[in-house]
Structure prediction request, 368 residues.
Amino acid sequence: MATMADVARSAGVSVATVSHVLNGTRPVLPHTRQAVLDAVEELGYTTNTLARSLVTSRTRSIGLAVSAISNPYFTEILQGVEASALEHGYSLLIADPHDDPGHERKVVQLLHERRVDGMIVAPSAEPRELVAYLTRHRVPTVFLDRIVDVPEGEDAPRFDQIGAEGAEPTAGLVGHLAGLGHRRIGLVAGRPGLSTTRERITGYRHGLAAAGLPFDERLLVHGDSEAAGGERATADLLSLAVRPTALVTANNAMTIGALRALRGRGLSVPDDLALCCFDDFAWADLFSPRLTAVAQPSRDIGARAVRLLLDRLAAPDRPARILRLPCTFAHRGSCGCVEQPGPRSEKSGHVSGPTGEAHAKAHERTLP
Prediction:
């Protein structure tokens, strides 16, 4: 097996220069850098990651803890995280907390014990133990998708956070349905306690108010962010004496459950019930009719989470940042409109009012 000394002899440079090229610890002249890289390729040299970590106290690895890895939304986030991590020379260690606070705490500790340089975590609905552990051990961490309320001030933990906008796009879906004449619009909301659930409920209520419609608590049900829960919650709505004429589902898994509930009762979309969903996914435009949806910039969220973490590693004392990315309105036919031409857009933007115009602009808040 080739050593760093072998690479140095082949390239005609010192071992220290090879180290600087491979670790990026000091600028090296372009022709010298290329000579080192050519020698590495020719000799088949591979870095001893363990030995390097003992010297630098860095493993160049990132721990990623996200629940429901089988969920297409988190799968796309994972792809964004992985691509960005590899681009910057980092590997990933992945764990699934299963949205369980106790298990979440355990998997985060296991990742920490693997000496990852930092973590990206989609926190559960009750992240107190998680926050306490990360704070106690001063683990550089980015919270992803679900925004956590953490103390502010000079001595507060510095957790960066990133997620898509939730309230305004949901309000836009409600406004769109109201603009089509619907007066009883139901919401299948996610797991109680999650910030994403709170935001989408807030958007639902704002959308109703903006359309001059009253809030009816019977039309708001929780599907616990899962397909089975979405099916059960939709069945409850369909059992009402006066059922809704339109429905907003708050994530892709609950959309599948809602469609199962409708099919089980012989009801069709949009003839018997109009449907809009939060979360677009790869096969949303394969349904008949195709699903009108809010698309989150999931890969971008993953990629930006890595960059936030790398910024934190480079400057541990910098102010914490909360980055919110806008969404895209994918206007199809399940809402009862005529099918809109054109492919699915990956561009991010706000859903604004009944027409759903996109305004692609992220916003960032910096904490003290």
Summary: The longest helix spans residues 298-314.
